[in-house]
Design goal:
The protein is of the alpha/beta class. Helix content is 30%, strand content 29%. Helix 3 (52-64) runs parallel beside helix 4 (100-117), helix 4 runs parallel beside helix 6 (144-166) and helix 9 (249-260) packs parallel to helix 12. Bound molecules: zinc ion (ZN).
Length: 581
């Protein structure tokens, strides 16, 4: 499958930097030299509108230079256009979609863009945080999140129909933002949007994980996003998209590496602007298209530990947990449901509200599978299912507590940086595989079960991990969408990371020893490791035979033996697996 690199061009850029044919011709040359073959030309962003004539001229100039062109628009409110959302749930200027004025104005732009380009993508603020009187009256007895999804699905249906009336070959694409655990609150419907729109693109703009600007988002999220949306949208998921905001050249390149492992036919970069043209930020990507294409091609049929996130279900105290599971080196395979064919699966609070949740988990355990529940999933599941994990309600007490040490297999490991358990546990019928220890003011050293397991007569194994991330109450006013805090899960001692990973992968027949921040991506014929940390990493693998001579790495300091990899800081390595015939 080919990989097409597409550059996004905003309405503001079309008005300024790319306002003339000369500027567009030199931009096309610059982009071609850096591996791009298509551009998205935007006709609206935040009140800034581009005229039909200007769009046609821009389209024709890029066509003449051999570029494919698509239309785009960014539905953020600007003065004199549509009706702005009311209330302060988000400071972001979203629209009120209960008002015909908003819907008709945006529909006019969509139809215009379809007329010019045929294919049009809606950028990732097709959402609303409106709580105005109109919205409140229209929602009747529905919760806000349900009302917003219904409203936006209905709006999208109108727009898609209008686009197809304008041109029979119209394709209206929705781009999902990166913050997958907040979608459902503001109208992004991962269940219905894929069937309503002609295609779906997915945001993978993880940016700098060490700053609050755009969230403390871990890089593995890019892969979770693509693979999870693929489960929701199937073949309709056609593209991924990342940007340079809050990135240096290396972070920008790592987004490209992780996104390429998602193996989608189109990668869009946001957006053509000053830092690209005058700086070196695009340098590594531009110089690495061949290797990125190789990663894209080898990323076929992912395998590993299933993680279950149904669309439109709330994640409780496990928000964005999948990012951290990946950064702990667990090769994750996102799914929307638990199935009895999954040999090892992790269930979080996301899945518990499914009507058939208990039945799914019970069936998996009875089929001899391993199911790992987080603390919040255990706390929320019904009493009889808690019993299958070896617990009674009185033995499950929430309360985030800082851990001083972990104990497992007769050894004790002090923690060097803050680590936490999600609550206190007292299993009635499960064995403790890992203990967490902390000092109580009068009780002395307290031991808290951190990992417990109960093996059923069917061979099924019900495991509990006493960990989690955070809930929606942790989002501050300045960051309502992306990961709002630095989650300490990656601070666990290496031996505990190894032990957790070993529990998760045991039913799959392999084990990986590695420090945190080294992600594993397992595919049918290849294993890929990405060291996202600033220090070298040693990886020891059992049960994944590979051919050392096939090592592909982006650092000459990375080396490989039959079962070990020594990886340079901030690098990737790929080896071909020995696959039995
Ligand atoms: Zn409203």
């Amino acid at each position: 499958m080919p990989q097409t690199w597409t550059m996004y061009v905003t309405a503001q850029t079309l008005h300024k930097e790319l306002a003339t044919s000369d500027a567009r011709r030199s931009a096309a040359t610059w982009l071609r030299q850096r591996g791009f073959g298509a551009v998205v030309l935007e006709n609206y962003r935040g009140g800034c509108v581009v005229s039909e004539d200007a769009l046609k001229r821009a389209r024709d100039d890029f066509h003449a230079e051999g570029f494919a062109t698509l239309g785009g628009l960014m539905p953020v409110h600007g003065e004199g256009f549509g009706v702005r959302a009311e209330g302060n749930e988000l400071r972001l200027p979203t629209f009120c979609y209960s008002r015909e004025e908003t819907r008709a104005a945006l529909e006019g732009l969509i139809v215009q863009a379809v007329r010019i380009f045929g294919t049009v993508v809606i950028d990732d603020v097709f959402m609303t945080a409106c709580r105005c009187e109109c919205c409140d009256a229209a929602r009747k007895d529905r919760p806000w999140d349900v009302f917003r999804r219904d409203l936006l699905v209905e709006t999208a249906r109108h727009w898609v129909a209008a686009a197809h009336r304008e041109r029979s070959d119209a394709r209206l694409i929705v781009k999902f933002p990166q913050y997958y655990d907040r979608y459902h609150l503001f109208g992004y419907d991962a269940e219905r949007f894929p069937s309503v729109f002609d295609a779906v693109w997915q945001g993978t703009e993880t940016r700098d994980p060490s700053t609050l600007a755009y969230g403390y988002v871990e890089p593995y999220e890019a892969y979770v996003n693509i693979k999870w949306m693929q489960q929701c949208a199937g073949e309709k998921l056609e593209g991924a998209w990342f940007d340079y905001l809050d990135c240096d050249e290396q972070l920008f390149f790592e987004q490209a590496v992780t996104t390429s492992l998602g193996a989608l036919p189109r990668i869009t970069v946001f957006s053509y602007s000053e830092p690209f043209v005058t700086g070196s930020i695009l340098g590594r990507i531009a110089a690495s298209h061949a290797v990125l294409k190789k990663l894209h091609q080898l990323a076929e049929e992912p395998s590993g530990v299933h993680v279950v996130k149904p669309p439109n279900r709330d994640g409780g105290e496990d928000l964005f947990l999948f990012d951290y599971l990946g950064m702990l080196g667990i090769p994750c395979v996102p799914a929307t449901h638990l199935e009895t064919t999954m040999r090892s699966a992790i269930i979080t609070a996301h899945a518990v509200s499914l009507p058939n949740f208990s039945e799914m988990v019970r069936n998996a355990l009875l089929a001899g599978r391993q199911v790992i529940a987080t603390f919040d999933a255990l706390r929320r599941m019904d009493v009889s299912l808690q019993g299958m994990f070896g617990y009674e309600p009185k033995g499950i007490m929430p309360g985030t507590t800082r851990v001083e040490r972990f104990e497992t297999a007769g050894s004790s490991y002090l923690v060097a940086a803050p680590c936490y358990v999600s609550g206190d546990l007292a299993p009635t019928d499960a064995s403790v595989l890992i203990w967490a220890g902390t000092t109580g003011c009068e009780a002395g050293m307290i031991r808290i079960p951190f990992v417990t397991a109960r093996t059923l007569s069917t061979g099924g194994r019900a495991v509990v991990w006493n960990l989690g991330t955070f809930g929606h109450d942790k989002f501050p006013i300045v960051e309502r969408l992306n990961v709002p805090m630095s989650v300490p899960l990656l601070n666990m001692p290496k031996e505990i990371c190894d032990a957790l990973r070993a529990v998760a992968t045991a039913p799959l027949g392999f084990a990986i020893k590695a420090p945190a921040r080294v992600a594993t991506y397992l595919f049918r014929r290849h294993a890929v490791f990405v060291n996202y940390s600033p220090v070298p990493a040693e990886i020891e693998v059992k049960g994944i035979p590979w051919k050392c001579e096939t090592l592909l790495a982006d650092s000459s300091n990375t080396g490989c033996t039959a079962d070990r990899l020594l990886m340079a800081p901030r690098s990737f390595a790929c080896v071909e697996r020995v696959v039995p015939h």
